[in-house]
Design brief:
The protein has 460 residues and is of the alpha+beta class. It folds into 4 domains: 1-49; 51-72 and 305-450, Efflux pump adaptor protein, beta barrel domain (Elongation Factor Tu (Ef-tu), domain 3), CATH 2.40.30.170; 75-111 and 269-300, Beta Barrel (OB fold (Dihydrolipoamide Acetyltransferase, E2P)); 128-259. The protein is 42% helix and 32% strand. The chain has helices at 2-48, 113-130, 132-166, 171-190, 194-210, 212-242, 249-267, 447-450, and strands spanning 51-54, 56-72, 75-79, 84-89, 96-97, 102-106, 270-272, 277-282, 289-290, 295-300, 305-312, 324-329, 332-344, 349-351, 354-362, 375-392, 397-399, 402-409, 412-423, 427-433, 440-443. It is elongated, with a radius of gyration of 54 Å. The two termini are 72 Å apart.
Length: 460
């Protein structure tokens, strides 16, 4: 009996083990499918909450972003141009001034030497200009008298030259004159008295009168005198021609320049407004000793404000004068200001290793609210493309190096590969891809959820 029961017990244990294995396997399978079901339900629930956007045609505006600072259209630091003590200060911070208004001046009782010299030069120039007409008339008469006397002298020299050139002595006369000189010289050597000396001098004069070499020398001297006299007459005549109808224009211009230089030097004792605006800073103090280059005032034209924006060398080729710009300020965060590009600097500046070019932008509105020094976020609209298929940039994601969007088809998001084109601030152009205009695209696709079920939503 005992021997027969043992095989039955063994069989029963085996069956129980098999049943236990099947039960555990079924439990694992059930748990697996339950987890899959729950994950699918969670994913489907997440899909129901997806934000969607229509794939449609739009106007795409490409732009460059930057940060700029509000600055006056005109801003000048005014400094002293000479030394001295400050005599009077006519303005204070906030004063409104017009171009040419006196802002400050040096003490009249303690002016530097260069200012005093300038005053004397101004007086001399003014007096010379005042007397220019009468002095020109006097000079005109003097030149006429000089020219007349010189012409008379020239005629006398010319007549003398003509007589000299007409002088001619025969050879026998020259021999006689030479013999007479030699005899006179011999008599003087034998008996050196006053009578014989005068005889030598007379014989020498008679010989010189006919000697060819003496005549040639005298002719050369007369010709030189005649030439010099002719040049002098020509110079005087030229001077007379310049003032024949009034003062010499060049002389008047010289005096006017001397006067302008003197007045310019005198102006350095004062500081005047170079343009109309508002005094934003005052450093000049009455009685203070100043020197050339000492800061006195800062003047700004606050009626016209502009924005200065540094743009990198990579983006600057796309910026052009006249492009529209949008500006936002922290102080007015709910307001957008508009303007346009007025100027692009010709030379770049190195800032932390980056070359930037300064772009000046007008501010079309809000001049009363804005203040110099305020910082603005700037969007320069560099290009505009109309009627292009576009999506918000948040709809495009990158997977395995490819641009992807998720398109809703049969209530399920389907990944579609696309090719992007131009960008704007928040939109991107879609050049190609397997999607149709009007289809709904997932905005901000939750790829962390979608990637957990790569086969759930089908293939592209």
């Amino acid at each position: 009996m005992t021997t027969e029961k043992r095989p039955n017990r063994s069989i029963k244990r085996t069956v129980r083990a098999i049943l236990t294995v099947f039960f555990l396997f079924a439990l694992v399978i059930g748990a697996y499918f339950f987890i899959q079901y729950r994950q699918q339900q969670n994913a489907l629930a997440a899909i129901k909450d997806l934000d969607l956007v229509a794939f449609e045609r739009k106007t795409l505006i490409s732009s460059i972003n930057g940060t700029g600072t509000v600055q006056p259209a005109q801003d000048a630091l005014l400094v002293w141009q000479t030394n001295g003590h400050v005599g009077s200060v006519a303005v204070s911070v906030g004063s409104q001034v017009q171009q040419g208004d006196l802002l400050a001046a040096l003490d009249e009782n303690d002016l530097p030497l260069d200012i005093l010299q300038a005053r004397m030069e101004k007086l001399n120039a003014e007096q010379a200009l005042e007397n220019l007409e009468s002095s020109s008339a006097l000079r005109r008469e003097q030149l006429k008298a000089d020219i007349s006397a010189a012409q008379n002298n020239l005629k006398a020299l010319t007549d003398e030259l003509a007589l000299l050139q007409a002088r001619e002595c025969s050879s026998w006369r020259l021999r006689n004159l030479q013999t007479n000189l030699e005899d006179a010289q011999e008599n003087y050597r034998d008996n050196p008295n006053e009578f014989n000396l005068r005889a030598v001098q007379a014989a020498q004069s008679a010989l010189d009168f006919c000697a060819p070499e003496v005549i040639a020398s005298q002719t050369s001297n007369l010709e030189a005198k005649i030439s010099l006299q002719q040049e002098t007459i020509a110079t005087w005549q030229s001077d007379l021609d310049k003032i024949s109808n009034g003062p010499d224009p060049i002389e008047r211009e010289k005096l006017e320049l001397q006067l302008a230089i003197a007045e310019k030097r005198l102006a350095s004792q004062q500081i005047t407004a170079p343009f109309s605006g508002t005094i934003t800073s005052v450093s000049a103090v009455q009685g203070a000793l100043v020197s050339a280059g000492t800061q006195a005032f800062r003047l700004a034209d606050l009626s016209t404000l502009q924005l200065k924006v540094p743009v990198s060398e990579v983006d600057i080729p796309n910026v052009a004068v006249g492009q529209k710009a949008l500006m936002t300020f922290d102080a007015y965060f709910n307001q957008t200001f508009t303007g346009q590009v007025l100027e692009i600097s010709g030379a770049g500046e190195n800032q932390a290793g980056v070359i930037n070019y300064l772009v000046t932008i007008s501010i079309d509105d809000g001049q009363a609210e804005l203040k110099p020094g305020m910082t603005a976020g700037v969007v320069i609209q560099i290009a505009e493309k109309t009627d292009v298929l576009a999506l918000p940039v948040q709809a495009v994601t990158n997977k395995d190096g490819k641009d992807i969007v998720y398109v809703m088809r049969a209530d399920k998001p389907v990944p579609v590969e696309i090719q992007v084109g131009a960008y704007s601030e928040d939109q991107v152009e879609i050049l190609s891809g397997n999607l149709e205009e009007g289809e709904m695209v997932v905005l901000n696709p939750p790829t962390s959820v979608l990637d957990r079920f790569p086969g759930m939503f089908g293939n592209r």
